[in-house]
Amino acid sequence: MKFVILTGMSGAGKSTAIKMMEDIGFYCVDNLPIPLLEKFVELTTLQSAELQKVAVGIDIRSGQSFDELHGVLDHMKDNGVEYEILFLDAEDSVLVKRYKETRRNHPLAGGERVDKGIEEERKRLAFLKERADYIIDTSQLLTRELKAELDKIFIQNQDYKNLFITILSFGFKYGIPVDSDLVFDVRFLPNPYYVEGLRAKTGNDKEIQDYVMQFQEANVFLDKLEDMLEFLIPNYITEGKNQLVISIGCTGGKHRSVTLANELYKRLSGKKGYGLKIEHRDIGKDALRGK
């Protein structure tokens, strides 16, 4: 029987993940009281013929008994109970935004601000994150992308490395993305904006791609960037990094940056050991402003 403990930061998507795990065949119980965890494991083991996959949601809502979880997990391990821990996380700024959008109170905030509750929750959950078999940072994930990550772990049984990479194109005139980990400036390349017939197109169009990639500098840049990332990514994984945002910028975020972000995405797509997605933050802004 596969037994998964699903936990993580409040607002990181645990309720959504529980529903997704039900959809892929797990028998799920959310917010199980800590003192009942071992008894629940015992009961599900007796029903092992019927229950092949079980997931239990545990979080800070358990109140005072949450502090007992450390000892309960140790006792289960000593008794030969096999379990895996899936920890959902997100950046503090993202969690605050989600709470403000839903107008919900953080379970540890009391009468104080949401960020104070998040700070306290991180301290109390630190031991669980350290023990986690899988960590998914949902800061940049859409619902379908979270489902894809869960499928990788629990259906495809891939060797999951806990790192999710976002390749992000942007325009410098609209500001550098605040969540960038690595920023690359490709304004050294000739700009299609000034070529007749190309201004209205984007880096998703073949005409722009052919124009940008005809220059040797573009290909050399991609070769060197790919080589550097092949060195960095395994080290980020070893260090325990969960989220990596690679931002590629040009003037307006419409032509050169989009083309090179797309090309980098193609090169990294065949690699294993991390999740990957691409976003074009500013690709439509010139059109919206009538420029």
Automatic annotation (TrEMBL):
<keyword id="KW-0418">Kinase</keyword>
<keyword id="KW-0547">Nucleotide-binding</keyword>
<feature type="domain" description="RapZ C-terminal">
    <location>
        <begin position="165"/>
        <end position="283"/>
    </location>
</feature>
<feature type="domain" description="RapZ-like N-terminal">
    <location>
        <begin position="1"/>
        <end position="157"/>
    </location>
</feature>
<dbReference type="InterPro" id="IPR027417">
    <property type="entry name" value="P-loop_NTPase"/>
</dbReference>
<dbReference type="GO" id="GO:0005525">
    <property type="term" value="F:GTP binding"/>
</dbReference>
<dbReference type="InterPro" id="IPR053930">
    <property type="entry name" value="RapZ-like_N"/>
</dbReference>
<dbReference type="InterPro" id="IPR053931">
    <property type="entry name" value="RapZ_C"/>
</dbReference>
<dbReference type="Pfam" id="PF22740">
    <property type="entry name" value="PapZ_C"/>
</dbReference>
<protein>
    <submittedName>
        <fullName>Predicted P-loop-containing kinase</fullName>
    </submittedName>
</protein>
<dbReference type="GO" id="GO:0005524">
    <property type="term" value="F:ATP binding"/>
</dbReference>
<feature type="binding site">
    <location>
        <begin position="8"/>
        <end position="15"/>
    </location>
    <ligand>
        <name>ATP</name>
    </ligand>
</feature>
<keyword id="KW-0342">GTP-binding</keyword>
<dbReference type="GO" id="GO:0016301">
    <property type="term" value="F:kinase activity"/>
</dbReference>
<feature type="binding site">
    <location>
        <begin position="59"/>
        <end position="62"/>
    </location>
    <ligand>
        <name>GTP</name>
    </ligand>
</feature>
<keyword id="KW-0808">Transferase</keyword>
<dbReference type="Pfam" id="PF03668">
    <property type="entry name" value="RapZ-like_N"/>
</dbReference>
<dbReference type="InterPro" id="IPR005337">
    <property type="entry name" value="RapZ-like"/>
</dbReference>
<keyword id="KW-0067">ATP-binding</keyword>
